[in-house]
C-alpha cells in the first residue's frame, strides 16, 4: 500500500484557495509541480509524517536538487513551490522558510544575429530567379 502525505487535505485546501484567489497562468503545470513535491517526495517514509509547519528549506532544496531535469525546469519548480509556500505563509500554514531555499533561475540565453555578410547572401539566395536546384548546388 502506498503512503500518503499526512497534510494532503490541507495542501489541497490551500491549492483550491490559491486557484480561487490568483488563478496562476498555466495552472495545470503549476499544479503538477506542487503535486510532485507533495505526492512523490513528501510521501517517502522519511517525510510522510512531517506536517506543513515542519517543512523547511532542507526538504525543498533536497527535492529540487535531486530532480533529473534541466536547470530551466528546476527554476520552474522553484517558482511554483515558492508561490505555493508564500500563499501558505499568508494563510499561516507554514513558517517563513522559503527565502532560504537555494534559488534557481532561468538561464539567460544570448540572442545570436546573422552577420551582415551572411544576411546579404541569404537575400540573394531567396530573391534569385535561378531554379532552386541551381541555387542549392
What can be said about the biggest beta sheet?
A: none
What is the overall shape? Answer: elongated
Give the mean pLDDT: 91
Topology pattern, helix = H, strand = E:
HHHHHH
Helix content: 40-55%
Contiguous uncertain segments of 5+ residues: none
User: What is the number of beta strands?
Assistant: 0
How far apart the termini lie comes to 65 Å
How many H/I helices? 6
* Residue fraction in strands: under 5%
Walk me through what this model shows.
The chain is mainly alpha-helical and 137 residues long. It is 55% helix and 0% strand. It is built from 6 helices and no strands. The N and C termini lie far apart (65 Å). The model has no long low-confidence stretch (mean pLDDT 91).
Question: What's a concise summary of this model?
Answer:
By secondary structure, the protein is an all-alpha fold. It has helices at 8-21, 27-39, 57-66, 71-91, 116-127, 132-136.
What are the SSEs and their pairings?
Blueprint: H1 8-21, H2 27-39, H3 57-66, H4 71-91, H5 116-127, H6 132-136
Helix pairs in contact: 1-2, 2-4
Amino acid at each position: 500500500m502506498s503512503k500518503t502525505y499526512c497534510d494532503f487535505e490541507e495542501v489541497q485546501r490551500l491549492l483550491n484557495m490559491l486557484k480561487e484567489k490568483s488563478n496562476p497562468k498555466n495552472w495545470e503545470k503549476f499544479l503538477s509541480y506542487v503535486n510532485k513535491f507533495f505526492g512523490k517526495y513528501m510521501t517517502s517514509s522519511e517525510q510522510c509524517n512531517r506536517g506543513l509547519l515542519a517543512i523547511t528549506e532542507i526538504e525543498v532544496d533536497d527535492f529540487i536538487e535531486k530532480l533529473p531535469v534541466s536547470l530551466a525546469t528546476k527554476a520552474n519548480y522553484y517558482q511554483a513551490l515558492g508561490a505555493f509556500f508564500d500563499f501558505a505563509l499568508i494563510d499561516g500554514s507554514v513558517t517563513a522558510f522559503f527565502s532560504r531555499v537555494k534559488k534557481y533561475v532561468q538561464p539567460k540565453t544570448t540572442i545570436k544575429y546573422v552577420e551582415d555578410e551572411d544576411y546579404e547572401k541569404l537575400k540573394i539566395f531567396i530573391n534569385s530567379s535561378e531554379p532552386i536546384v541551381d541555387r542549392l548546388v
